[in-house]
Amino acid sequence: MKKQKKTRVVLVEDEQTLLNLIVRELEKKGYEVESAQDGRTGLALIQKTKPDLVLLDILLPGLDGFDILDSLTKDHILPDLPIIIISNSGQEIELERAKKLGVRDYLIKVNFNPQELMEKIADALAAERKRDRGAGKKSPHRSIKHVLLVEDEEILANTLKKKFTQKGYSTFVAANAAAARSILQENPIDIILLDLVLPDMSGFAFLAELKSNPRLKKIPVVITSNLGQKEEIKQGLEAGALDYIVKTSTNPVEIVKKVESIIKQY
Question: Is the pTM of this model over 0.70?
Fold first, then answer.
């Protein structure tokens, strides 16, 4: 009978007492655990071992937790890798920053409860397995596809996000170009759905900006707009959009199917 592979967890924590406690609890639950007590060693350990989940302190010697998160984002390991933060700080600004980088959950040390941590780990791993099944995941960290919806119509954006998520995609929503820039800076994106009428600038101008950026120009862009004149469609395609969807004549299910087809090609 083939031996079942253990779930591998990397713990990056500089407080020896807490580290020992967490390692003991994880091993009791049957997890395979590797640990580090400084940021540089922790980052190298994550990159080398490709764990199933990471428990990460924010205040660390060497690199801090956000330095590690930034490096994992640049390596396209985040946001696919489940990470739970364990920190002394519970400031809202830090929580929001961590979530934007793809962190799954957050636990404050002063409220530390081993049982709660085990539950959060189990929930994060269960959610990851569900996403893997939906996306047909075959390789670690980078097979989940990331969709960016640049759309200021809240109802449509929420509907599309829900449908993409149900299909196993990681989906980001930006209501304007500024928010889209921030998401693109912090996350690996596989395809962009771009509305032409945005609150802060025209979609055509933002498309030109994307195509002039060496890092972003190869990301396929599909225009989704209520503007459906031949001249507008021609302008969008000539500006570098891969396709042009007129929202008034295409329902959300059809939009998702079209995007899925494009992602498979790329």
Answer: no
